[in-house]
Amino acid sequence: MFYADKWFATENLNLIELTEYEFWLAHYTGATKENITSKTSDYSGKYEMWQFTNKGQVDGIIGNVDFDIKYINK
After folding, report:
1. What is the pLDDT of residue 72?
2. Are 68 and 50 within 8 A, CB to CB?
3. Which of 48, 57, 58 is nearest to 19 (CA)?
4. H or E stretch covering 31
5. pTM for this structure?
6. Low-confidence ranges of the chain (pLDDT < 70)
């Protein structure tokens, strides 16, 4: 698996050469844990994980955390 934000992936990586690896996309769209599907990424390529915010809140942790979603194909 490789990790990159939308800009870096589209501007600096040869994504065709990386198709054998899963892609973990970081793209902050304003989505929150409560409204993930209303503000999805407009990245048009394939990705298996999406980091949708770095402003998540978790009980017991002081400060912001990243929130991600993993898409599972069965």
Report:
1. 82
2. yes
3. 48
4. none
5. 0.88
6. 74
Q: Cα 14 to chain center, whole Å?
A: 18
How far apart are alpha carbons 8 and 3 in whole angstroms?
10
Q: What is the DSSP-derived secondary structure letter of residue 11?
A: H
Residue 60 Rama label (left phi>0; alpha psi -120 to 50; beta): left
What integer pLDDT is reported at residue 74 of this predicted model? Answer: 59
Q: Quick one: pLDDT at residue 67?
A: 96
Which residue(s) pair with 68 in the sheet?
Answer: 51
* First-to-final CA distance of the chain: 18
Residue among 37, 39, 41, 36 at smallest CA distance from 10: 41
